[in-house]
């Protein structure tokens, strides 16, 4: 029987194999490829589900239908608040997003599997585990997956996984940054580097007030990250307080303008994230900031005396500040997270409406969402190109 050779590619670094394929089966193979079958299903609007992620039914349905989704981190549940306030706050934040017509997607690693969207029982389990779950940034993801462990994602970890999952907007409390005395101890949050290389818009109440906010803004500038205060004022918020004493490089008036900025960032293919800083509502600002600031200064000194540093310092400082303010800072923390969720949902909804009204493909014409540039994605694209060339070759043979 007449046959031809088709190249089949294995993983990166493996040799090419020449496999004989009979003409009787080649036409069906070619036809399947030409009508769009490829590694990983790609929906018409450009979304491709990640083959190793577990999507909740709610999140998967929203992404399949090109509906707005807002990502949420899980360290707020495990490291940011005590139980049961952590679980209650997580559930309330998700409900706020749903009420806006947007789907929430809390991200975590459970038993070595990346989950995009959690059930109420999974949130409850994380809340009860607390700090026994690993605080997870980019560096930890592959390790936890390989070891089958649980991980609660930080801003950095959530950005990585949200981008891979096809979710471009993420709401949280506050970003990490350059710690005080960072110029000497080099304690700089991975959040800042991630913002420079992952195109996800982070809606937050600025940088946590325990940080060196001036140096944090300088570092973001170096990373090419757009920093925008939402609401018209140029004051950059400091988590518990509406102003840090520093100014943002830019402002936007409302969620609609923020959505346009995000879409331009996507269309340009810049590859960097964006920070949308939302000041805490005036009625929720904690004691004018004075009491909280005094507690922060005391907690910082205690951390220094005890030699606490690295990924342990932020949870320690937040716990200590909550204790010193007799819960005032925790109440403010919960209020600002809920407010950020409302704003994030509004931005996601505005972006969705703009995309439907003015569809503009991303660079390369591969759909509305920027495609991941991971080695796996690049390998899959190469495999698909080779398969399409092989399919065309087989059709040419059939025509003789």
TrEMBL record:
Cellular component GO terms held in the UniProt record: cytoplasm
Domain of life, source organism: Eukaryota
Annotated GO MF terms: hydrolase activity, acting on glycosyl bonds; metal ion binding; pseudouridylate synthase activity
Pfam family, one: Indigoidine_A
Keyword field: Glycosidase, Hydrolase, Lyase, Manganese, Metal-binding
Stretches the record annotates as Disordered: 352-384
PANTHER family: CARBOHYDRATE KINASE PFKB DOMAIN-CONTAINING PROTEIN (PTHR42909:SF1), ZGC:136858 (PTHR42909)
Protein name: Indigoidine synthase A like protein-domain-containing protein
């Amino acid at each position: 029987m007449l046959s031809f050779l088709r190249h089949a590619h294995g993983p990166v670094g493996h040799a090419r194999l020449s496999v004989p394929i009979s003409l009787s089966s080649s036409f069906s193979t070619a036809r399947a490829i030409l009508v769009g079958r490829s590694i990983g299903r790609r929906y018409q609007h450009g979304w491709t589900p990640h083959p190793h992620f577990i999507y909740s039914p709610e999140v998967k349905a929203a992404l399949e239908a090109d509906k707005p989704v807002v990502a949420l981190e899980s360290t707020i549940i495990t490291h940011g608040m005590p139980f049961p306030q952590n679980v209650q706050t997580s559930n309330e934040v998700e409900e706020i997003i749903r009420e806006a017509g947007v789907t929430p997607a809390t991200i975590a690693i459970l038993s070595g599997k990346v989950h995009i969207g959690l059930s109420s029982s999974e949130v409850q389990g994380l809340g009860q585990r607390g700090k026994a779950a690993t605080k997870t940034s980019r560096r930890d993801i592959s390790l936890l997956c390989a070891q089958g462990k649980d991980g609660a994602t930080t801003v950095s970890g959530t950005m990585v996984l949200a981008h891979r999952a096809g979710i471009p907007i993420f709401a949280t409390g506050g970003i990490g940054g350059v710690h005080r005395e960072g110029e000497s101890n080099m304690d700089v949050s991975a959040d800042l580097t991630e913002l420079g290389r992952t195109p996800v818009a982070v809606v937050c109440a600025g940088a946590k007030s325990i940080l060196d906010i001036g140096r944090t803004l300088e570092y973001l500038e170096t990373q090419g990250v757009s920093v925008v205060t939402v609401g018209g004022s140029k004051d950059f918020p400091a988590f518990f307080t509406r102003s840090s004493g520093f100014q943002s490089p830019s402002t936007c008036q409302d969620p609609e303008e923020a959505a346009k900025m995000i879409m331009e960032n996507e269309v340009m293919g810049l590859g960097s994230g964006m920070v949308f800083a939302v000041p805490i509502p005036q009625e929720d600002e904690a004691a004018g900031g004075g009491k909280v600031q005094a507690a922060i200064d005391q907690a910082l000194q205690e951390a220094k005396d005890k030699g606490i540093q690295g990924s342990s310092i932020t949870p320690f400082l937040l716990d200590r500040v909550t204790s010193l303010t007799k819960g005032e800072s925790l109440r403010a923390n919960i209020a600002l997270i809920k407010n950020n969720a409302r704003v994030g949902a509004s931005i996601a909804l505005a972006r969705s409406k703009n995309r439907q009204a003015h569809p503009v493909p991303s660079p390369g014409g591969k759909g509305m969402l920027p495609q991941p540039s991971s080695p796996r994605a690049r390998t899959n694209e190469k495999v698909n190109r080779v398969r399409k060339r092989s399919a065309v070759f087989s059709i040419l043979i059939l025509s003789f």
